[in-house]
Specification:
With 213 residues, this protein is of the alpha+beta class. The protein has helices spanning 3-14, 18-21, 25-32, 120-127, 139-146; strands at residues 36-41, 44-56, 84-89, 93-99, 108-118, 162-165, 175-178, 192-195. The protein binds a DNA duplex (13 and 13 nucleotides) through residues 54, 56, 63-65, 68, 71-74, 87-93, 95, 97, 110, 112, 138-141, 150, 180-184, 204.
DNA sequence: CTTACGATCATCT
DNA sequence: GATGATCGTAAGC
């Protein structure tokens, strides 16, 4: 009868717990595929299925912000798993990560693309674009669609207004992997994961996939 | 369809 | 002072 109440109950049951994130970063990146990113805004509910992610490690990963240790920007990567790491890039874009690994170990998963599910008209307004494939098919696009800025840096994504839920709607989907996009070092490692043949994966689809034989 | 490049600024060297 | 975990537009096939 009261959708808000139903919504809250569903969230309470299905939000991914901190233990989900307190594991190997690549594993978390793969398992986030098919899960649902959800945000409550004043106009309603925004949600989208995660279809593309990238894993970033710490000291041993030259593509990571934490490669040279803890700095002010990347400090959150070393904190509790399940926190949001949001940073500003290229003078105009915000990028959303979820912190992984145990406390004291740097790691994060970059959320790269979503398949919009709920709140599509709100996303259209935020993006000033109509085509559904252009709303959240890229890491900076989805933060704009969801209205996510640096204000969410350090936000606990295991509860509150921005969470990931276990809701998948996908049973068995084929997963591809490739080098990470837009990095100048460490692009050899296969740490980008995406749902094969999903039209919402970001357009930039480089090379590698496992071709079978 | 593809490739090329400018925008624009917080963070780090 | 240089550099991006990018995007949208423009121009070329």
């Amino acid at each position: 009868m009261f959708p808000v109440v139903l919504c809250t109950l569903e969230l309470a049951v299905r939000v991914l717990p901190r233990s989900f994130y307190s594991r190997d970063t690549s594993l978390v990146a793969r398992e986030l595929l098919g899960k649902t990113l959800m945000r409550h805004v004043s106009q309603g509910l925004l949600s989208g299925r995660i279809v593309e992610t990238e894993a970033y490690y710490g000291l041993e990963d030259p593509a990571s912000h934490s490669f040279r240790g803890k700095t002010r920007r990347c400090a959150v990567m070393w904190e509790r798993p399940g926190l949001a790491y949001v940073y500003f890039a290229y003078g105009m874009h915000f990028l959303l990560n979820v912190v992984t690994e145990e406390i004291g170990v740097a790691g994060a998963v970059l959320i790269r693309s979503l398949e919009p599910i709920e709140g599509i008209d709100i996303m259209r307004a935020n993006r000033r674009r109509g085509k559904i494939t252009e709303l959240a098919s890229g890491p900076a696009k989805l933060t704009e669609a969801f209205g996510i800025t640096c204000d969410f840096n350090g936000h606990d994504m295991t509860g509150g207004e921005l969470v990931v839920t276990a809701e998948s709607g996908l049973s068995d989907c084929a997963i591809g992997c490739s080098g990470r996009i837009g990095v100048s070092r460490g692009s050899d490692r296969q740490l980008r994961f995406y749902i094969l043949d999903n039209r919402f994966v970001s357009k930039n689809k480089p090379i590698a996939r496992h071709t079978g034989s």
